[in-house]
Amino acid sequence: MSEFKPQIFSGIQPTGNLHLGNYLGALRKFVALQEQMDCIYCVVDMHSLTAQLVHEDLKEQTRAITAAYLASGIDPVKHIVFNQSKVREHAELAWVFNCVARVGWMNRMTQFKDKAGKDRENASLGLLAYPSLMAADILLYRATHVPVGDDQKQHLELTRDIAMKFNLDFEGKIRNSGTGIDITVGDQPVHAFFPMVEPLIEGPAPRVMSLKDGTKKMSKSDPSDLSRINLTDDADTVARKIRKAKTDPDALPSEIEGLKGRAEADNLVGIFAALSDRAKADVLAEFGGQQFSQFKPALADLAVSVLAPITEEMRRLNDDPGHIDAVLKDGGERAGVIAEKTMKDVHEIVGLL
Ligand code: TYM
Q: Which CATH architecture does the domain made up of 7-204+320-350 adopt?
């Protein structure tokens, strides 16, 4: 029994400003994981066509996300940073996965239901097949670990379903091609071409909530800018948004259990913990018994000290699109080498001449 080589893959869509949720749910984890495994970080520009076809400035947005990757501390030399459309095999493998995945699986995706709204007949076919392209992104590199926020959990379960069905449907052909690996899934032995990816979601802020409503996810599409902290916000704006964040009148509890039923308090404590690489219990041990009027300024100082250098570096990089384009070109070429090899094997397994 052997194992797939550990490999990280993750991606962010170039639509709208990045916010604190993207930073804590994804970017900050991306940076930390660089010390542990080989990482491939992608700007998934083709995914951006699924909900909205025509974009004013898709190229600019793609560069802006790349700038955020670099400004956060991702090393594009030791690891790989590129945009999805540079490597055509993403679309090619997605097509094979469209034929592996079932329409029922796609229809069950909560993000599809949310984005398609009531008029599902009028949603693009791309929006329905979105998770199939996402599975292709990951499995093209036979990635084993995927750092994401909690909202992507269902898509990663579907990625596992696609990998498993492909492995089982083609088991004999995988064996004949000599490209598979014996693994166990649960207690079932499988001769696998694609690994069963592990989502990396844990941490104190897997789902950062809106600053205006602790029951709603912080998101790019919320009409209220006060609901989120954008990575482009200046220090005064960050501090003002935290000051205005919704809270309840009680003091902070000293124990985790005391956060139950206090969504806004839980969210702010989680943000503090994630920004300082501490556990929520540890933050409460320090701030328990204090009022929000004391906690909020401490949180604002912390947020500014972490985010301001990133924002400044993003600005600097945004003025240097030539550098960003060179990073993406180099990353695309290196990703392309891996992708080409996987697709060659997939052609062999599936029987595409
Ligand atoms: P996207 O672009 O919507 O979000 C990028 C990352 O940010 C995380 N995130 C959050 N985390 C915590 N709290 C929040 N409020 C919050 N909002 C967003 C997301 O979970 C994500 O990790 N489908 C993906 C992009 C994608 C992808 C992939 C990811 C395409 N292919 C392959 C991983 C692997 C998406 O739309 O993320």
A: 3-Layer(aba) Sandwich (3.40)
